[in-house]
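Z., the sequence and structure:
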Amino acid sequence: MKKTRIFSAVLAVSMLFSLAVSANFSDMPENEKLALAINNAVSNGILSGYEDGTVRPDSNITRAEMASIITRACGALKEADISEFLDVAPDSWYYSAFSKAYAMGAFSGDDQKLMHPQNNITFQECFTILSQVFDLLPPYEVIRDDSYIFPENTVFTATNSRLYDVSVLNDYSDGADVADWAKVFVSGVVINGGWNGENGLLTPKAYITRGQFAIVMDDIIKNYIDTPGTYTEFPQGNTMIRCNDVILDQLKTDNDIFISDSVEQGGIVLNNISANRLVVRGCATPVDENGDPENENFGIAISGNFEAIRIIRPYISADLSGSVYNGLYTAKDTSIFLGTFGG
């Protein structure tokens, strides 16, 4: 790791809050929560204003725009070959965004090899993307007994033998309108505080607006780290780290910490920290043209106490020997030096 600047806890926190500069748009809503969410989304590079000085909170979001938004949010740089998709032209403004979104697992297209870039995105489509990107899942248990009788308000996925509890959908009068393929993902976003609905409704098949999306993102991620240095505390709320040369030292939080796609192998150090969940998307080992790791170094060393550690992207090697955790998930093609369960 390159030499980093060292920040005191107070300075580190003030830097995080300083990101939330006031956005001045002619159509900023009067609703305080909505205005704050839009302001934060613009300040953190999630949304941007238009040349006419508006931010258009009531406008819908297309799938192409969503691909661009989610890749910016996570600082995704790696691109994948998406030439198989028939409706994403190489000279389109959104080609690179879809290429990155596909590489990070946010978009997969449909059975006809279409991405539908110009279609407005629905709540349930948006929540499916967010659930997978940020690992927002409802409670589940692993079922390996073929004779098990699945209770109501659950969804069983045979690929990983998981039985998900989606009963939270019953709290909304239109919960039954959520498509079967989206129930797990919508439930995950709701349970993890990303959305409480509006007027008792989830409106899963309605199109989500820019303002509504800003609220969802603000509830999922409150703080963004874009400046190298040593951090000893975070403000309240979940935090995403989007740059290299970051050290978390003796930091304690009741919230989640996300390490984004933009963080490189060895780009972060976690020294005796305490957090609810640690969700690792970055720190992957570079691979060659055959998909084989180019080196044997750990991508990340994790020391501390966690409710859960979730390594959700491939080719991430992690040293967990200094960690205690109650739950651990690792994706395919990961290499883990285990720590201690429970504690």
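DSSP finds seven helices and 13 strands in the chain. The two ends are 31 Å apart (CA to CA).

Let me know what you think.
H.
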